[in-house]
Amino acid sequence: MAVAVRRSLKFLLRPTSKQAAALAACLEDHRTLYNAALEHRRTAYAKAAVSVRYGEQSAELKHIRADDAGGQGRWSFSSQQATLRRLDKAFRAFFDRVKAGRTPGFPRFKGRGWFDSVEWPKDGDGCRWDSQPEHPTATYVRLQGIGHVRVHQHRPVKGRVKTISVKREGSRWYVVLSCDDVPVEPLSATGAVAGIDLGVAWLVTTSDGEHVANPRHLAVTAERLATAQRDLARKKRGSDRRRKAVARVAALHAKVRRQRLDHAHKAALALVHAYDVIVHEELRIASMTRSASGTIEAPGRNVSAKAGLNRSILDAGWGVFLTVLAHKAESAGRELIAVNPANTSRTCARCGHGAKENRLTQAEFACTACGHAAHADVNAAVNILRAGLALRQAAEAA
C-alpha cells in the first residue's frame, strides 16, 4: 500500500504592476474584514455579554458583499470565510490559553504591516492552480478579482492541490500550495544510524564526528541591518521615506530568513541521504531563549550574556532545521527519534559517568572518572544516539 503525506510548496509570483496593486487591495480588504469581525465580537460581548461565533459572522458575508460590490464583493466568498475562520481560530487559542493558566493574549486588530496572507480553501473555488495548462513554458494561478498571475515554478507539484494561499514578504509575492496525497519516495537503506547534537559553534554534530557549519546569517548581516534600523529611526512616521526605510529593513530580514531556510534544507537532505535512523534532542527553544532580565523587584543576572546566547540560538535556526528534517525524513522513509536532552552534554559516552566537571570548555570533554577525551559535541551526539536506540528497542519490545 502506497504511503502519502500532505506537503506545502511555496513559489514566487511574478505579477504585473496592475496585478500587484490588485493583490495589495485584496490583502487590505481582507484585513479590514478581519478587524471589523473582531470589533463585532468585542462590542457584542461588552454591550450585551453575547459571544459571536464564526457561523453568525459567515452568514452576514452575503449582505456585506452586496452592500460593497466594488470592495468586499470583488473577492472570493470562500477566501473571506477563511479569514473569518482565522479570527475564530485566534479566539479559540485565546480561550485555550486562559484554561491552561498561561498568559492569554487577547486577539488584536491587524495593522497594515501585520496581515500579509490570504487563503483560498479549495482549488477551483475562487482560485485555480495551473490555470493555463496549454501554455508551453509558464505556469499561472488564477485568483478571483486579480486574474491569471504568472508563477516561477522551480519544482514539480505532486499530489492533489487542496488549498492555495498568497503571501506578501516585503516587496515579493508568493503562492503557497497545500497538497494532499503526495507520494512518499523512500530512499535506499544505508544501514547507518546517527545521533545529532545541535549547537551554536556548529549547527549539527553527528555521532560519527561530522560537523555541519553554522553560517550565522544574521551576524553576517548585522552591520547592514543596524545601519538600516538607525536610518529608519530617523524617519518621520507616515512619510514616504519611512516606508522605504521599513522596506529596506524588511528586505534584509527576509534575505536572512531565506538563507537560513536554504541551509537547513541542504543540511537536512544530506542527513536523510546518509542515515536510516536519525536521533535528535527534543528541544524547547522558546523556553531556552526566554529573557533573563527578570523584573524590577528581582532583576536577572548575566542579562547581556544571556541575550547574546539567545541571539546565537535563534540565528542558528534550530527550530527551522528540525521542522525541515522531519518533513524530509518522512518523505524519504527515514526514522526520526526525539529524546530528552538532559545531561547528554555532561555524561561520558564511554563509562556513563555524569558530572558538570566533565565538560571543560565548549568544545572539550574529558571524563573525570575514566579519562575519556573527545569533542564535547561528538560525545553528546553519541549519548543522544544511545538514548534514541534504547527508546526504539523499548517500543519494539512493547
Short overview:
With 398 residues, this protein is α+β, with helices and mostly antiparallel strands.
Question: Explain this structure to me?
Answer:
The radius of gyration is 25 Å and the shape is globular. The mean pLDDT is 91. It folds into two domains: 4-104 and 112-183, no CATH class; 193-217 and 255-397, no CATH class. 44% of the residues lie in helices and 20% in strands. It has ten helices and 14 strands. The strands form three sheets. A seven-stranded antiparallel beta sheet has the order 2-6-7-1-5-4-3, with helices on both faces. With 398 residues, it is of the alpha+beta class. The longest helix is centred in the middle third of the chain and has 35 residues, at 240-274. Helix 1 (17-48) crosses helix 4, helix 5 packs antiparallel against helix 6 (240-274) and helix 6 (240-274) crosses helix 9 (318-332). In the C-terminal section; belongs to the transposase 35 family. Pfam families: Cas12f1-like_TNB (PF07282), HTH_OrfB_IS605 (PF12323), OrfB_IS605 (PF01385). Residues 5-47 form the Transposase putative helix-turn-helix domain.
